[in-house]
Amino acid sequence: MPEPLRADLCVIGAGSGGLNVAAAGAQLGLSTVLIEGGEMGGDCLNSGCVPSKALIAAARVATQHRLSAAFGVDYAPPRIDFARVRAHVKEAIAAIEPHDSQARYEGLGVRVVRAMARFTGPDRLIAGEQEIAARRFCIATGANPAIPDIVGLDQVPFRTLNDIFDLETLPSHLLIIGGGSGGCELGQAFRRLGARVTILEMKCLLGDADPELVEVVRRRLCAEGVVLREGAQAISVSRQGANLRLTLQEDSKRDTIEGSHLLVAAGRVPASDGLGLEAAGIARQGKAITIDGRCRTSNRRVWAIGDVTGGPQFTHWASHQALVVIKSMMLRLPARTRPLILPRVTFTDPELAQVGMTEVEARAAGHDRLVVRRWPFAENDRAETDRTTAGFVKLVATPKGRILGAGIAGVSAGELIQSWSLALAAGLSLRAFTEMITVYPTLGDASKRAASGFYAERLLNDRTRRWVRWMARWS
């Protein structure tokens, strides 16, 4: 074994969060080691955000012929070449890959070790054959697909969100277990590319989102031919010739459904096994590493960020946690994570975006005197010209106009939610939106209209009318 490597900072995991911490450490003058046993860039680059959005983009293009006639433009139905679709996905990964590459980080001064890591003590670990001792550690090992307990699942071929993009042929009928964001996004994408798709969800589709907003997405999925089986639990799976037969339980009834391929999209489990956490005195709850608001673990030398902590599983949340670590660990500044300002987006068409509390969450938190306002895209001129009128903006606020949350179901919802994220982060009230000048005609005007609706009831009443008449009499 080579001589122990000593460093100021050791980061375990080269996903988005770990890369941010490692880059900051090196640029701030710390001797930094980055350990990665898999692919640089983590799930987001290789099997998550990037490939899924590339596939969604291809699927969106495949639908243009269905929408064009309303604009006076006719296209022939497309011919889907799935090999070229797959090549497009790979090209998107390859274009972004250099930014997350080993060469780039070594150029920043980071020592990169490509091996699996295991703690052997509170201040040291082994990666491959290299022992590393460090003053500070940051664990960012992500999560692995959750595999549900389904009879026969270990006897049949199936895909997860980690390897679905490796399919070489388009499924004739894709069965998806899990109606969360990943299941809905890919279900719609594969349907648009020509596959039959059935989504099974034990509870409700997109169960963490506002039910009103979910209904907009549900209607579109059904209209496009995605079969939704909500309240259905997969019991067993078996081979049936060239197909797979899935047995499911709905209420008190059992049913079977056959498909050519199976995608298990039933969530993700923190990847904390094999890290030797006990040797380092790092506590965890279940598989999730326990952290405080500064992302510090029970070992004061060790921080943890991203999916391995069991919190929200978003790349931008891991990046937010990384910034907290950079501030608190390296700069010794007071910094804590802010989960209440975390935006969440499901990239279906239409998109579903939320930030802050939903109406249900706000009432559960004790806000009984809520004010809820909605503004439909059907009353937005740009949405009308573009024929993208499905959906609406929904606001949840206190009677004094303090923003508690915002949700958007509609075209470009992931972009439109950004202004509400800024408002929550900066502590702005709804009044800030009413005073903002929005460009006409844009979809963003819907946010201003929704905020203006909050004040309209307070102004357009008998008391205000009497005041205006009195002022007019004396002016």
Automatic annotation (TrEMBL):
Covalent S-S links between cysteines: 44-49
A Pfam family annotated for this UniProt entry: Pyr_redox_dim
Keywords attached to this entry: Disulfide bond, FAD, Flavoprotein, NAD, NADP, Nucleotide-binding, Oxidoreductase, Redox-active center
Protein origin, superkingdom: Bacteria
Keyword Aminoacyl-tRNA synthetase in annotation: no
Binding-site residues, FAD: 53, 307
Cofactor(s) listed: FAD
Database matches in InterPro entries: FAD/NAD-bd_sf (IPR036188), FAD/NAD-binding_dom (IPR023753), FAD/NAD-linked_Rdtase_dimer_sf (IPR016156), Pyr_nuc-diS_OxRdtase (IPR001100), Pyr_nucl-diS_OxRdtase_dimer (IPR004099), Pyr_OxRdtase_I_AS (IPR012999)
GO molecular function: flavin adenine dinucleotide binding; NAD(P)H dehydrogenase (quinone) activity; oxidoreductase activity, acting on a sulfur group of donors, NAD(P) as acceptor
Domain Pyridine nucleotide-disulphide oxidoreductase dimerisation span(s) in chain numbering: 343-450
Protein name: Dihydrolipoamide dehydrogenase
